[in-house]
Amino acid sequence: MYKHLLVATDGSRLSSKAVTHAIALAQALGAELTAFYASPDYPLPAYADGVVYEPIAKDEYQELAAKEAGKILAGVKLKAEAGGVECDLLHSIGSAPWEMILAAAKKSKCDAIVMASHGRRGITALLLGSETQKVLTHS
Fold it and tell me: Percentage of the chain surpassing pLDDT 90?
């Protein structure tokens, strides 16, 4: 059935449940697993009194984002290996997590994506949107 799964994680408790499910699914199917973390895009500089204030240097931001992703993805890899599942790690920086998730799945030639949904409703869903819904819509 499925031979390669992508699990998208943001490091949250809810996302951890998706990781656990993805590992169990990979075990049952004998599938490979790729864990993916999407970092937010580089923060825009602020303009005040005709002066540009950059919140942090781009190189420094990339290092910090990679470090954060490394911590989160290392936990996924540890869980996967404990379950006897081979796990590759991927990380990207960008403005649209859903696009990065789909690009990671395509790059890794995954047949299925496992991810959690925060289940936002009403105004919150309208304002924040749903990355899971966007992945479903565009995949």
Answer: 67
